[in-house]
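Quick start: load a record and inspect it. Here is C-type cytochrome:
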Amino acid sequence: MTRVKSRCRWISALLLCVVATAAGAQSTIASDDVAIKLASQVCSSCHGPGGNSISPTFPKLAGQQQAYLVAQIQAFKSGGRGEQEAHDYMLGMTTLIDDATAAALARYFARQPPPPGVSTDPALMAAGRKLFTQGVADRVVPCANCHGDRAQGNGIFPRLAGQHAPYIVRQLKVIQGNLRNSPVMHGIIKDLTPEEMNEVAAYLQSL
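Running the structure step on this input writes:
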């Protein structure tokens, strides 16, 4: 945990420097310039260049829905995301980002080409595909209803295609446990089993 805190302090200091140099910038172009600097100098240290994270601890942001990204930055700032990792990595940093910069960061990552999927166990992916497209009778509605037929996302509903499977499983668990405020999702996945989580995550990672 000490290493995490030290890393976060370093990243927060870097973010503060970038934001400070952009103080007073009002135009969309200026905000976009700041966002590019933040993305390349700060966000990339965890989320990878262009939002292509290689660590399952940190989600891939490339190609993510713009509206979703803005909503999550605001949720981190307000404390709406209560899982431990949100506090460890994001809370202190997002408090330094104003609304214009948040919107510009979201635009930047939404425009980045998403990475290719990574396939794993065929049986696991097949079961996950069935769950994603068909749901589970009388228990879970199809994920594709909101997230799109190829998990590309739609506005406030995030892109899930190509995301790290361990990250998806972890988020399903924190939502299920009400550590992450997501009333719609909680109602949908409240009865999802750990095995089903692994299945759908394997499928989504492969897209």
